[in-house]
Write a structure and sequence with these properties.
The protein has 371 residues and is of the alpha+beta class. The chain is built from 4 helices and 21 strands.
Length: 371
């Protein structure tokens, strides 16, 4: 063959640049996989399904390493070997692939895509379903915990015990927990990193997820034990967090009893002029009291700039029998509500815009001697 004759099309020779590029790609891939193998990428696991999610994450990440290494290799080789010196006079020579190269590329990437559909895709979903349906020996029913999201706080209710709190999420270890989750305003997302549990909180809809904590722990010991909103929901989205604490069964039962006792009204009437302050999406009082059958006033101080608040009073927890609704207004500002006298009884008050435990409380109306 004549020395000036070019090789047949479709059979390009591997040159020095391609060889060095291949070696660089192999080195970068090996280094990336080694780092991934040793690096503590994921938080501690506290629930029975966490390892399934972790395995899927690690499989996808390990497959992404050679892809990232390939992109980085092309960039490095292009910059070092093929960069232009000075102002280019014309376009570079086009690079044309061969049918064999295209078929190989499509075969490899298509095969990987199909593999990922089945593992960790379908396989992981089946594993999660099996883990959710597998109860603890001797356990008859899961513990139901109702979660209500509202900008920008969480309300936790244990319906079997009649306990509602917004201070922390307390769970027993080695017991199946069924979370029933909803939202009262916008889309939120229920996420506990230590459990690898995440599901949307949708207004008007109850979503469900199930976990079984396998270790005790608290937010103070591990920040991954927290209930965090993972869906951008407004101004204070980043602060929409609730500590999670996993305790032994007897300690959980004792905590429920303690919370039930703490929910009783503890205030007495001291006059007909009440004052309550709203600040950082919370009232400064959880119990208000007035004499029975006597008109009274409530001064509401809203110290949350640009955030609307109000105060209303109702007979029932479902807020179907409302006795009084105060004007809603933005802070920073103050309003004084004039409320007609109410018959003796124990009622409830709340902010209608933020019906969360931090902005709710007990309203005691009591007969007072000499009034």
């Amino acid at each position: 063959m004549d020395e000036t004759q070019t090789p047949p099309k479709g059979r390009p020779r591997i040159g020095r640049e391609e060889l060095w590029a291949a070696l660089l790609w192999v080195a970068l891939t090996a280094a990336g996989e080694a780092v991934l193998w040793k690096a503590p990428l994921l938080p501690e696991r506290y629930a029975n399904t966490a390892h399934i999610v972790d395995d899927a994450f690690l499989v996808l990440t390990r497959l992404a390493v050679p892809v990232f290494a390939f992109v980085l290799t092309v960039l490095v080789v292009s910059l070092l070997r093929f960069r232009s010196r000075g102002e280019p006079a014309e376009d570079g020579e086009p690079i044309r692939g061969t049918p064999r190269t295209i078929a190989t590329w499509l075969g490899i990437t298509g095969g990987l895509a199909v593999l990922l559909i089945f593992y960790p895709g379908v396989y992981g979903i089946l594993e999660l379903q099996r883990a959710h349906s597998a109860g603890v020996e001797g356990e008859t029913e899961p513990l139901i915990v109702e979660i209500e999201a509202a900008r920008w706080a969480w309300t936790v209710t244990y319906p079997d015990a009649g306990v509602t709190t917004g201070e922390e999420l307390v769970l027993p270890v080695d017991r199946t927990i069924r979370f029933e989750i909803t939202s009262v305003d916008v889309l939120h997302s229920f996420w506990i990193p230590a459990f690898r549990a995440k599901i949307d909180a949708v207004p008007g809809l109850t979503t469900v997820t199930t976990v079984r904590p396998e270790r005790t722990g608290s937010y103070e010991d591990d920040p991954a034990l927290r209930l965090q909103c993972a869906e951008l929901c407004g101004l204070a989205h980043s602060t929409m967090m609730l500590p999670v604490r996993v305790v032994e069964g007897p300690a959980f039962d004792a905590w429920l009893l303690e919370q039930g006792a703490a929910g009783m009204p503890t205030c007495e009437p001291s006059g007909t002029e009440l004052r309550i302050v709203a600040e950082n999406i919370a009232f400064d009082q959880t119990c208000l009291a007035v004499p029975a059958d006597t008109p009274f006033t409530i001064e509401l101080v809203n110290n949350d700039a640009g955030v609307p608040h109000n105060l209303s009073i109702a007979e029932d927890p479902e807020w179907t029998r409302v006795l009084y609704t105060g004007e809603t207004f933005d802070g920073v500002a103050t309003r004084t509500y004039e409320v007609p006298g109410l018959p003796a009884g124990v009622y409830r008050f709340r902010c209608d815009v933020h019906p969360i435990p931090a902005m709710s409380g007990t309203f005691v109306v009591k007969e007072v001697e000499g009034s």
